[in-house]
Specification:
Layout (H helix, E strand, L loop, with lengths): L9 H6 L14 H20 L11 H14 L5 H18 L7 H17 L7 H27 L11 H27 L8 H5 L2
């Protein structure tokens, strides 16, 4: 069955703050798959329509990382990030074709890749610092790939951003800010969605 392709990631399920259904359903449920699709669509919609206007290159990563980490907390399954990434790509394509939004090269790259990168980074993650490090690393990794995509677009004269800066001055700042923004976005998402320490059971707490 297709649902057997998405086994539970036990580390994420135990650490999630949102009481995922995966704790009681070993097979992926239809509700979980719908939640993942919606989280991917939410990431694409937020990236397209929300303008934080912080003036910091790479800050838009927060709009894609947080919805997808929420999806992992609600449905902590293997390949969950792939599902959200595919949903985000389909949503972005629909928004672009309808003329509702336009995605820059960096934005569409990080949007589509952050989910699969989360899958890779968290494949063996458990609770604690390894889980947080995996999410932070995924944020950094996705944003650095976006940085490369945006840099290539600038060098080729294909940059669609509204504020087109000379490459040299942009690159000197972006190499730092893309890394920091990816790390901060991952950390915020991790703190909001997952516990640092494994929650003790009532029996363990009563025994102390």
């Amino acid at each position: 069955m297709i649902r057997d392709w998405f086994p539970v990631n036990d580390g994420l399920a135990v650490a999630a703050r949102l009481s995922p259904r995966a704790l009681t359903h070993r097979q992926a449920t239809a509700l979980e798959l719908v939640l993942l699709i919606l989280c991917g669509a939410a990431a694409a919609t937020a990236t397209a329509l929300i303008r934080l206007r912080l003036g910091i290159p790479g800050h838009a990563i927060v709009l894609s990382v947080i919805p997808m980490v929420v999806g992992l907390a609600l449905a902590p399954r293997r390949l969950a990030g792939f599902i959200m990434g595919a949903s985000a790509l389909a949503t972005a394509a629909s928004l672009s074709m309808s003329g509702t939004a336009r995605f820059g090269s960096g934005a569409i790259t990080s949007l589509c890749l952050v989910g699969p990168i989360l899958d890779l980074a968290l494949a063996r993650a458990r609770t604690g610092w390894r889980l947080y490090l995996g999410i932070v690393s995924a944020g950094i990794g996705a944003n650095l790939v976006a940085l490369g995509s945006r840099a290539a677009a600038k060098l080729l004269g294909l940059d669609l951003g509204g504020n087109v800066r000379p490459f040299d001055s942009w690159w000197a700042q972006a190499t730092i800010t893309y890394t920091l923004c990816g790390a901060v976005a991952g950390l915020i998402a991790a703190v909001c969605c997952f516990r640092w320490r494994e929650q003790r059971s009532k029996q363990e707490a009563a025994g102390q």
